[in-house]
Amino acid sequence: MNQDAFLPLLRELAHCYQTFESYSAANIRSLGLTPAQFDLIATLGNTAGMNFRELGEKTLITKGTLTGVVDRLVAKGLARRVASPTDGRSQTVQLTEQGASLFARVFPAHLAHLRPAFAEFRDAELHQAQETLLRLRRALERARELSA
Asked: What are the phi and psi torsion angles at 65 (to 5°)?
């Protein structure tokens, strides 16, 4: 690997993520949610609910933050905890009717906000970027496993 290509890639990857997060988060906040709340609502939308382990795997929320975010959604009446029928120690988090209604409103609105930023790319370019990012994520996951 050429060091001249590696460092600029790391820098651009970080800048790209920060810029996307900033652009996305501003819109999410205008919808009355925090990015973590939106992440949970978007993940739970159109599902029967998920346990905390599944939510941790499918969202960008760290384990230590997840309980607090769920607590705040429950307090707002957007989510509820339901005891697992198969494991008495486990709970499933589900959207309430109000949460499902919010999901139906804010998820398409947020996608509509993001779509113009990607409009200059052809479908083949978007697919190639997705494939490259997937390959990079898998390489990072392998490296993390080897270093653990």
From this structure: -90, -25
What does CATH list as the number for 3-147?
1.10.10.10
Token pair, residue 56, equals 């941790």
Pair type for strands 50-51 and 91-95: antiparallel
Confidence (pLDDT) at 1: 65
- Kindly report the pTM of this predicted structure: 0.86
> What residue type is assigned to position 82 of the chain?
V
Domain range summary for the chain, segments of one domain joined by +: 3-147
* Residue 47: strand, helix, or coil: coil
- What is the structure's pLDDT at 84? 78
Rounded Cα distance between 101 and 41, Å, is: 10
